[in-house]
Amino acid sequence: MLLAHALVCDPGGKLPATLKEDLWRVICALELGNPGCSGGAGVPALFKAALAPPPSKVFLTVTRLYFSAEGGGERSVCFTFAFLFLILSMLVQVVREETLELGLEPGLASMTQNLEPLLEKQGWDWAFPVAKLTIRVGLAVVGSVLGAFLTFPGLRLAQTHRDALTMSEDRPVLQFLLHTSFLSPLFILWLWTKPIARDFLHQAPIGEKPFSLLSDSAFDSMRLWVLVVLCLLRLAVTRPHLQAYLCLAKARVEQLRREAGRIEAREIQRRVVRVYCYVTVVSLQYLTPLILTLNCTLLLKTLGGYSWGLGPVPTLSLAQTPASTVPVSPGEDEAQQTAARIAGAVGGLLTPLFLRGLLTYLIWWTAACQLLASLFGLYFHQQLAGS
């Protein structure tokens, strides 16, 4: 992904042509395109991979605002939720695939199957268990950091959702869309819970005998379409949420007027301007999780071997080409041979099964963090904020 980002994001043409050729050769060898491709087949995956860093950068920039604030409890809230999500992410990794089909077990098995001969070739047999443990701990840490990033967006979503429902009391259709959008993370969690999703559709209680509604490949494609529809639904109700936040200015002015004593006009202006200046941060808090989920969904479809259609797709197996058997042309120079070996090693580790499990975990975990943070936000704004 870093290579794709470096190749795409070069607006000034600062990269040399030879370096671009080497980067493109490595990207093609990583199965983002075809070996020897000229830029046709791998372009969609290339641009999707290049779009991965911006959401993380936005999360980091917004979270930095809370750590720079003095006298507030935002920093403590971030650390508390980070520790909570660290524990939860470790618990999620021990759930069996028969219950939660994230694909982590077959994905890690596919990667470690190619990692073991690579370490044995270098004489690092002792590093194989350490590498497996490092991957598990890395996933837990990523889940903890992502949960900390999604804490305040979830709290803000709960506040704007509550206010948007109050403003749309005479519009039942909009209220239905708001409720559906708010519960969309719960639908995502349900899609990967095997007993109540895949198994239910495979053995639907229709008539006397169980009836299969969808095949495995059709169910996988249906999940991708549901993710895209839910992202578009949340995008469609962006305006009511932002309008509900802007109405906080009026509520704060009315609260200020109810206070005893003389109120200066400058204080009223300061409270109103503070709300309007912060609306950009609120927009980022609302849209960034949506962009992250949609981007991971598109990457999952491309790199995970899925299809948008409901027809059968080729089944992925654990057997992959070992990294040591990647052919190297004798006519290439040393830099090209090194790039080909690196591409072969990385391509052997980042198998489609591993990428499928990793991206599914990120999508599912993002939805889980959003749901927990927004539910806590509802409880806070309804029970604790008024007390």
Summed up, the domain count is 2
Query: How many helices does DSSP assign?
Result: 18
Please give the share of residues in helix: over 70%
Query: β content, as a range?
Result: under 5%
* Helix/strand order: HHHHHHHHHHHHHHHHHH
Describe the structure.
- This protein has 18 helices and no strands.
- The chain is mainly α and 387 residues long.
- The chain folds into two domains: 1-49, no CATH class; 51-384, no CATH class.
- The radius of gyration is 24 Å and the shape is globular.
- The relative contact order is 0.14.
- The chain crosses the membrane at residues 77-95, 133-152, 173-192, 224-248, 275-300, 358-380.
- It holds the Pfam family Tmemb_161AB.
- InterPro entries: Transmembrane_161A/B.
Notable traits:
387 residues; mainly alpha; globular; disordered N terminus
